[in-house]
Amino acid sequence: MAGKLETFAYSNDTGFAVSSSVAILAHDSSVKNGSINLIRLQHPKFKKLVYFHISEDGGVFEVLRFHENCRSWFVDDYVYSSYLSDCCIYCCTSAYLDGDLLILSRIHPLYLVLPSICEMPQNYRQPFGQMVECVTERCSILEKNELLRSGIDKVCDNFVLPDDNMRVYSFNEVKCVDWLAENVEILKARFIEKKMLHHSILTNEKSLNCYAVDVLSEYLCEKLSNLLHQRYKITSEEKAELHKVVTHVGGEISDPTENYCETSTKKSKTFEQNMATGETLAERYKREDKEISKAFWEVLDINSRGTILLRFKYYVWRMLDIPATWMKENVVDPLQKDRKIPFYHRRFNRVRTIDECAVDDRVCYEEAQMQFHLDKMVDGYILDILRNRMQRCREYYINKAEYKCAKCIDDFEQAELNFYIKYGDMGYYGDVLTAYTKQKHRMIWERRHPEIMAARAEAREEHKRQMELGNYDPSFWKRKDPRLYKDYVISIFTPYNFSSFLRFKRDEPSQDPKFYKEREEARQKGEYKEAANPNLIWP
């Protein structure tokens, strides 16, 4: 019984067919008489019914679905890439989600009948109509397909019965493997010509053979696929090694190009190890969480033994934890896994900075302006992360935070100082030109006062050395203006040196260029004395 063909009107003016719920974009070579025919046939490998398109010249096209979340292909008024010229876009408002792309991929019709032919007994002979009956019963057009009729001789031996003058065919396994090997060589030549694969695969004969055979095996049954692998002597170890190389070269996840911290190298090594074992980062984090939770309950179990109150608390906690854990692992996690919201880490290419723009180049100025605001936003997020990390550390250690959180506090103070140097004193509406002018004046000031910059660098190095020795001095970062005061302790009784503000003194190391020179001369004469702390009651 012939299958039902779905035909849609085709417009040569716009290049795509339109119906009430379906839009198709197809190349003219696959559409001769202005119609596109879709029929469901059995896939040669998966044994499932999939859509195929049969053109007037006998070409068979498989309808491949390419799905990418949150992606739209604009057809009317054209917004699509040039590589879609040989493709078909099929968008169905009821059956497919936004972002689905269906592509017409040409295949040889012989692949559709190979699964049934190779199951024939040895030396069993059949006429052409019976050999291709598995396909023609759903699509009678293929019975007259010249490409299929000429291709059947490449995998079968043909005989002519003397009595009936009828031509019959018998499957020849050797001829079939030879024909498949020819297709593998054609596929390899196309890979090399178009440079579709990574250089490490194209230059390695074994890897290229394995890759081409795997691509062709997508349309072969298991028996023919194994014979083709034996023909090229491809072992399971070589296949696994190729998959490891392909995952490393063309993996979907990649580390950012910027090095935001010193541990990025360690993270990348850990990421490569996870990819080599086939474990994703999400799976690794989930496994580590389970191990930590299991260790926590084991420790709690051991500590509660021998004490009635602690043992009772342990059982109560377990009664609350077991159903919650079961609910999360068996209900919540599977639902979230199937309904993941895609996250895109978009990488913006750097544009020219404001100092590279001409005076009258407005486009360059706007690009630099957007780049400045983007950098400010990213730096602000980094500063917030460091601030939250410091606050959590102080809340956790409380009285021990002064030496336990020294690294977190110092990192935040250094990042906040750098943020203020780059974006401070410009207000909310500060633009890239203001920042460039501020940077210019700062560089001029630093060049005019090298002794101050040298003293600051020396003080910074001394502060680092003291931190390495375990002596952290939080006053190194304190401001002399109480309006900018931040001790991160909410208390009005926190001791602070207000003397410089109350006596209207300036911040000598930062604002007085003669301070270091006079101090050095006084030290040489033996007249220099350290300023006493005005908050001291007893000397």
UniProtKB/TrEMBL annotation:
Residues 30-81 form the Rnh202 triple barrel domain. InterPro entries: NADH_UbQ_OxRdtase_su10, NDUFB10, Rnh202_N. It is a peripheral membrane protein. Belongs to the complex I NDUFB10 subunit family. It is found in: Mitochondrion inner membrane. It holds the Pfam family Ydr279_N. One of its GO terms (cellular component) is respiratory chain complex I. Keywords: Electron transport, Membrane, Mitochondrion, Mitochondrion inner membrane, Respiratory chain, Transport, Ubiquinone. The lineage of its organism: Eukaryota, Metazoa, Ecdysozoa, Nematoda, Enoplea. Residues 508-530 have a biased composition (Basic and acidic residues). This is NADH dehydrogenase [ubiquinone] 1 beta subcomplex subunit 10. The keyword Ion transport does not apply. Residues 508-539 are annotated as: Disordered. It comes from Trichinella pseudospiralis (Parasitic roundworm).
